[in-house]
Design a protein that fits this description.
With 275 residues, the chain is an alpha+beta fold. It is built from 5 helices and 15 strands. It has a 15-stranded mixed sheet that branches. Strand 5 (101-113) and strand 6 form a beta hairpin. The chain binds nicotinamide-adenine-dinucleotide. One of its GO terms (molecular function) is NAD+ kinase activity.
């Protein structure tokens, strides 16, 4: 089994990487930056987003796993003191050639400009915002007009991203076994002139959403942690990426709802008669 490590760059993450290299190489794993089977991210959720974008052309063959060196992350769910356990589990999977993975949906966006169509993928979400004025855009679902939006922006997230920016916008948390994308408004203006739905909406796969920004607007487009400013966008189509998923290596059970509880609530049972 071949592996690579992507780290945050701080001393703790670098030290942990050295320990991990030593441990997994004792198990016969081979360090390969070009074509790894497993990519370990050491840092935070942002580090895993970097790792995803670094390897997004190889999603078919790569599974990701994350150790957090700050507080518990959503993607990075192994603790630094579990590095030996993780290395042992990877070693065992390599010996029996049985790497267990879970696959989660991604959002695909197709950006149309006068030059053609560019396709991009995001693990958490993509957002569209105005740069020097509020965003004005027409939003169509399955080629039918839904609304004319005016406000700070629009966020379109994956189920894995539903606990990230989307959650701060009042979006629902969506289980990542559902092939869906969620559209959430960022501070829409609602008055007698401008009217939007006001609620987040969830689209199943095979549905698509087209956003047509007002011509020549300066737009800030984000794909996960990557931000670019554009003024050449004619429209953006978003949908559940067809035939492309992100794979996470699962060396132990960590159900999604437990992850939600640990990330956002903590564990404080109040009824002593309940487990
Ligand atoms: P970062 O690493 O500081 O991440 C910001 C926060 O988002 C961190 O607390 C991180 O743990 C958390 N996070 C990231 N992905 C998550 C997920 N899937 N579920 C739960 N929490 C998650 O900053 P960055 O490296 O620039 O990360 C980019 C991400 O930050 C974006 O994808 C976006 O989701 C998030 N973000 C959130 C807000 C907000 O909540 N107001 C605003 C901008 C960006």
């Amino acid at each position: 089994m071949k592996y690579n490590v992507v780290h945050r760059g701080d001393d703790i993450s670098k030290q942990l990487m050295q320990t991990f290299h030593r441990l997994v190489q004792q198990h016969g794993l081979i360090h390969d930056e070009e074509a790894p089977d497993i990519v370990l991210s050491i840092g935070g959720d942002g580090t895993l987003l970097h790792a995803f974008h670094q390897y997004k052309e190889q999603l078919e063959t790569i599974a990701f796993v994350g150790i957090h060196t700050g507080r518990l992350g959503f993607f990075a769910d192994w603790k630094p003191d579990e590095v030996e356990l993780l290395a042992d589990m990877m070693g065992e999977s390599a010996v029996v050639n049985d790497l267990r993975v879970v696959k989660y949906p991604l959002v695909e966006i197709q950006i149309t400009t006068a030059q053609g169509i560019e396709t991009q993928l995001a693990l958490n979400e993509f957002t569209l915002k105005g740069v020097d004025a509020t965003l004005m855009a027409q939003l169509h679902i399955n080629d039918e007009l839904l609304e004319t939006f005016r406000g700070d922006g629009i966020c379109i997230s994956t189920p894995m991203g539903s606990t990230a920016y989307n959650k701060s916008l009042g979006g629902a948390i969506v289980h990542p076994s559902l092939d869906a994308i969620q559209i959430a408004e960022i501070a829409s203006i609602n008055n007698r002139v401008f009217r939007t739905l006001g609620s987040p909406i969830i689209l199943p796969k095979h549905h698509h959403c087209d956003i047509y920004p007002r011509a020549n607007q300066n737009i800030l487009l984000s794909l996960d942690h990557v931000y670019v400013q554009r003024n050449d966008i004619l429209s953006i189509r978003s949908m559940v990426a067809a035939g492309k998923k992100v794979k996470f290596a699962r060396f132990r059970q960590f159900p999604f709802w437990n992850r939600v509880r640990e990330a956002f609530i903590g564990y404080e049972p109040i009824n002593e008669n309940r487990p």
